[in-house]
Amino acid sequence: MSNYIPGQPVTAVVQKIEIQKLRQGHQLILGFSIGGGIDQDPSQNPYSEDKADKGIYVTRVAPGGPADEAGLRVGDKIMQVNGWDMTMLKHYQALKKLTKSNEEVVRLLVTRKSLEQAIKGAMGYTEEAGLIVDFVPLKSDQEN
Amino acid sequence: MPRQDSVAMDTESTYSGYSYHSGRSRGSHRHGERSRDRHKSRSKDSRSEKSVTINTPPAEPLLGDSSVRGEPVQDDNWGETTTAVTGTSEHSLSQEDIVRITKDLEDSVGLDCRRYFTLTLAVILGLLVFLTPVAFLVLPHVLWPDKLQTCGTACEGLFISVAFKLLILLLAVWALFFRPPRAGLPRVFVFRALLAVLVLLFVVSYWLFYGVRILDTQDENYQGIVQYAVSLVDALLFIHYLAIVLLELRQLRPYFSVTVTRATDGETRHYNLGQLSIQRAALAIIEHYYCDFPVHNPALLSASKSRAAKHLAGLKVYNVDGEFPAAQAEGPGNNAAAGMAQSQSRAMIAAAARRRDTSHNELYYEEAEHERRVRKRTARLVVAVEEAFTHIKRLQEEEQKKAPGDVMDPREAAQAIFPSMARALQKYLRTTKQQHCHSMESIQQHLAFCITNNMTPKAFLESYLSPGPTLQYSKDHWLSRKWTLISEASVTSGLKDGSAFLLKCVDFSLVVTTKKIPYIHMSEEYIDPKSHKFVLRLQSETSV
Questions:
Q1: ipTM score assigned to the predicted complex
Q2: Among B346-355, B376-385, B510-519, which stretch is predicted with the lowest mean pLDDT?
Q3: End-to-end distance of chain B based on CA atoms, in angstroms?
Q4: FRET pair for B118, CA 20 to 30 Å: which of A70, B49, B133, B543?
């Protein structure tokens, strides 16, 4: 993950993860926990490289749950959820994007350090390593 | 030297002989001064001598010091009273004491002369000051009564004002200068001398003016004369204000931090003093010494002295190449030729440095052993005292009438329970080397006092468990002190940063160093109360 310069697009190596929501009673759960957001304290994030990074991180993954089966790991930073940007929004907004009751599937774009290292090692791009995407924070945080 | 240590511990017959001897002469000495002080009136003066606690009769040091200087002879019969005197007569004196007596006598005579001289000066000045306004008012009536204008209402009002101001001046002078003297300083008290000179000049100039302009011309304006007298009294009151500021107020603000160290055992205290001359600072320090420092106990120093002696005694130096008899040096008591002594001492120091010294080991184990012994004795003492105190019960009012047989007053009660704890107490005092500080009589007195005031055994023991300030002990220990101020700078000059002087007493000396309290730069920083704003730093983790 590169350092974030305000106003400049962020570049990251991401992995596409598709999670099928699991129905439990009248709730749809994904099986992981998130932390972070622009209204939270970024210095207490144990998973981020840059302690000023206010993005959304995966803090726990329930073993055997839908997220775990889809390949989500602890410490992943979520860049997009179903096309909505996750890098510059408040914590509860991120929550709302993930827990929409009318969606059965969420497609996340996550990044982690090992992805970048793998890309550097491979010196090219393959489908396994993931996409290289240019990010400009969308105006997804205007709705609430 | 005779076994004088046992004298202190033995019967009351010998001991009281000393105290009677000293008490009588001590009392007469004091009494004489007091009566003198009360009769004369005093004013602002240059009195440099206030009687110090010097020069009490010679019996005191005999009891206080020589009993310790001898080898600590243990007398186990201390608790039981015997009437045998162990070979010392009531008035035995050693050579040092004779020397000390003569020195004391000489000095006391010299000091008294000085004191009388300043006292008479003070009396003269005082009378001059108080009688001058009265004289100003009375003389016109005496010398030219017919020419004098009658005194109107304003003038008579001024009479009242003069009277009251004189009364106030009298009270103020009494408050400031009529206090019992507490010390005799070596040199004149500069501020007092200055004030006396000022007052004298002032009064003399007023008399001059009066003599020339009023007496010679025989002025008839009596009101003017009265106003003149009133102005004199006003000015005297202002001089008194000046005296208060110079003598009392100026040294109140702390300006120096003074470190006082006792040379013999290193006890150190720190005090804050104002801007004082060296002799006044020394006086303040001595007064603090009596209240704060634990009493000087020479018995505690014997351990380090014996260690030092052992260091030097451990080697024998033989001069193989010199003349017969071979110079055999052992310890510092060697009286060989000077050259040989020098080479021998150098050889000894070199050998001592090379030798593997295990005295630190001995010190460590000795101290640990001593500590253990003291603790054991303390435990036994505490138990004995507590048990002794349980035998005593205070009777209520009604019970006193019912049991008339065994009722005792505190002194008898103390004497009754004292033997049961005497042995434990004596052993404890001997272990902590305090046995010469407390006599049997003083312990019984203290016990009676504690019983009277319903004190617990622990409260009774407190004064024996830790050495208290010098004033707490009987007068033998401190009354015979004469202090000598040793200073490189003049003793009437003020204290300065880094000045040092010595206060020597017979047994030990106090080393005093001063440091100036630094000038403090303080600046302010204003914080607007509205600028106190806070943010909430959350880190929530929610499961999805």
A1: 0.76
A2: B346-355
A3: 99
A4: B133
